[in-house]
Amino acid sequence: MAATRLYAILARGARTGVIFRRGPSRQVQLIRWDLRNDTFEHGQWFKGRIYERRCDLSPSGRLLVYFAATNRAPYGSWTAISKPPFFTALALWPKGDAWGGGGIFEDEETLLLNHCPEWEASFKLADGFRLKPGMHVKPCGNRPGRGEDEPINGLLRERDGWRVIEIGEEQYCGLNATEIFRFSQPRVEEKVGSNGRRLQMILHAIGRRQKAWYGLDYRVIDRDGTLLIDLPESDWADWDGGDLVFARGGCIYRLSKSQFRYYADKREDAFQRLYDFRDARFTAVAPTPAALQY
Predict the structure, then answer these.
(1) Residues whose CB falls within 8 Å of the CB of residue 276, separated by 6 or more in sequence, listed in order
(2) CA 169 – CA 162 distance, rounded (Å)
(3) What ranges make up the beta strands (E) of 127-197?
(4) Cα dihedral sign for 237, 21, 215, 59?
(5) How far from chain centre, in Å, is Cα 184?
(6) Chain segment 247-279, per-residue pLDDT in tens
(7) Residue 103: helix, strand or coil by DSSP?
(8) What is the per-residue pLDDT across 115-126, written as a single tens digit (0 to 9) for each?
(9) Which UniProt keywords apply (predicted)?
(10) Cα separations (Å) of 2 from 31, 70, 252?
(11) Is 252 helix (H, G, I), strand (E, B) or coil?
(12) Which residues are within 8 A (CB) of 281 and not within 5 positions of it... i.e. 6 or more apart?
């Protein structure tokens, strides 16, 4: 059975989020997550590649910007705006390759598009698509349309409160190695939560074969640096208020802030498994009428 990988984006202005569920590698499902009651709306599937670290939610969570590729006509790859949990594009900018792509919602009415502005066609909407009335599009960052997951992923994480505390030591191992990049000293990013707790993401490798592309561990430490929670080989983690939410082994979990004190004794039993996505299978899902209009 193909491994199930999960990656989530939480809206910064509402108790909602999206989950990209991948597995097999060329099949991705979009799921809407209501964080008020931890319910999940299972949406459309996509046959191709979604570059989830170049995607973003508008502050309200009503709109998603994503970067996708099929490497087939008519577009090859593209950036689009849709209404979760649907991939059906309302606005679409053709890209054609895997450099750059995606975008950042500066606010509900402004999209920072990660396409190269020097190539005028890359900022032109494909025929038949339109922006939401009143929406503006501007270039993303100082190097729009360049790089791959970086620099856009770093811009997104910095906006959301992550800070690099150890840059790490990166070694290039080659395209045919089991890992394209390996960190002899891991790269560590940190996001401060409540009560002085700090969530850390530890990056060990990039471009792993037959495994998740990013070799990540997560952990929570207290203000003194004492390890509170260890989450090796997790795909994603973040704070939801004072709660810890994370993805591992095809499942989404929550550790409520009231349960942190019990983790030392209860260990894994302190985690609440919210949903197991491993058994999902590709199904053609038509967009609802609401998904076809802003």
Answers:
(1) 250, 251
(2) 19
(3) 136-139, 163-166, 169-172, 179-192
(4) negative
(5) 25
(6) 999 999 999 998 888 887 778 888 999 999 999
(7) strand
(8) 998 776 778 999
(9) Plasmid
(10) 19, 20, 18
(11) strand
(12) none
pTM greater than 0.85: yes
Amino acid at 38: D
Distance CA 258, CA 78 (A): 43
Separation of alpha carbons 200 and 192, rounded Å: 9
Question: Please, which residues have CB within 8 angstroms of residue 154's CB and are 6 or more apart in sequence?
Answer: none
HEC-encoded secondary structure of the chain? CCCCEEEEEECCCCCEEEEEEECCCCEEEEEEEECCCCEEEEEEEEECEECHHHCEECCCCCCEEEEEECCCCCCCEEEEEECCCCCCCCEEEECCCCCCCCEEEEECCEEEECCCCCCHHHHCCCCCCCCCCCCEEEECCCCCCCCCCCCHHHHHHHHCCCEEEECCEEEECCCCCCEEEEEEEEEEEEEECHHHCEEEEEEEEEEECCCCCEEEEEEEECCCCCEEEEEECCCEEEEECCEEEEEECCEEEEECHHHHHHHHHHHHHHCEEEEECCCCCCCCCCCCHHHHCC
Show the tokens assigned to 42: 């299972």
- Segment 208-248, tens digit of pLDDT: 988 888 999 999 999 999 999 999 989 999 999 999 999 99
